[in-house]
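Sat 14:20. Reprocessing the chain from the morning session after the first attempt stalled halfway. Input below, unchanged.
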Amino acid sequence: MMRSSCRRSRLPGGALGIVLVLFGAGEGRAAEPSDSELADGELVDRVGNRNQIFEGFLRAEVTNTVNRARATLATDPQAAEKTLELLSEKVGRAGEIRPDVRAQLVDQIESALRLARRQVEIHNQRGLLASQHPAQREAAERYGRQRSEQERSAADSMSQFQSLMAEGRYRDAEMLAAAAEEAQPNQPAWRNAVLLARTKGSTTDLQAVRIMKERGVVDVWRQEEIASIPTPDSPPILYPDPEVWQSLTERRNNHAVDVKKRGASELKILDELDERTEVDFIDEPLTKVVDYLKDRHGIEIQIDRRALFKAGISPESLITYSVKGVTLRSALKLLLRDLDLTYTIRYEVLLITTQEEAEMMREARVYPVADLVSPSPFVRRAARRYGIQNMSRAAAAGSGAF
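Finished this time. Tokens:
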């Protein structure tokens, strides 16, 4: 039977270790060989085991010392801080532990040391307040209350910001963070909050647009498929002959309704355009032609010199033309056609201008189209019965639009 004795000693680094010394051979077994008698592999194993035992006791010492220091923070923070600093130095000098274990122990000590230093600062501030003048102490307390109120307000704002983000109200969250950043410009957390809300909001909007785009494409495809559905021609759709459509178009011009309210001057111009006239010009300038027509019909006729200058046409361009027994409307169209000019009624005068300028001066007209769009079979039967001359009357009887 093997006998052993256990002898406790201080290992390098100051931590408690255990060294087992085996005595006696007991039942024919020899005593444990010394390090010099071991082979290389066995010596490495023995050293590794000793280091593991040392790391275990060092972990226990760090944990116990940190717990005792935290227990004395409220009563004696300076002593707790000193104890933790000594423990940190001891761990730093210990050469028998692995680097990862050393880093873990240092982090544990540093965390407790930061808390101890904070408590020392608070303790010193309290002692300073107690020794200060009452006015200074009151000012310091007031500053402390203001600081606490600001921190509480910042915490409430951050909580509200997080709630808005959770609800998906990213624009509101961005505005809240921007206002908080303006009130507390030295807080980088609010700048990060602004950027976070802005990025999240922009990403969400982009995703919504993409979804709308995809749905729009699908809707268009659906409408195309619906439009391709064939429909039976029963009853068949009957359309008039081309001559009927042409007659309808020509006759509809006489029923156009001018929605613009015109003055007496413009009404007189409209009447004179339907009056008969005669012209006989041989190389006469456009200005003299205009003066002649103005005196003959007693209406105001002006040349749009700006439009003519833009088109490269001179108001003194020569005109050679002779016609009689036609309306003033037709005579003007014939006279001005060679110069690529036209006329329009604008600003209570008959204005001679270019084709491009006249196109930009369009006026609204209302035309009767009930005979074209009415679906009533009665209209079609009445049109066939009465003929094209009575199409408007048939449409009025069928739909009541006229």
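The beta strands are 3-10, 16-23, 257-258, 276-285, 301-303, 318-327, 341-346, 349-354, 365-366.
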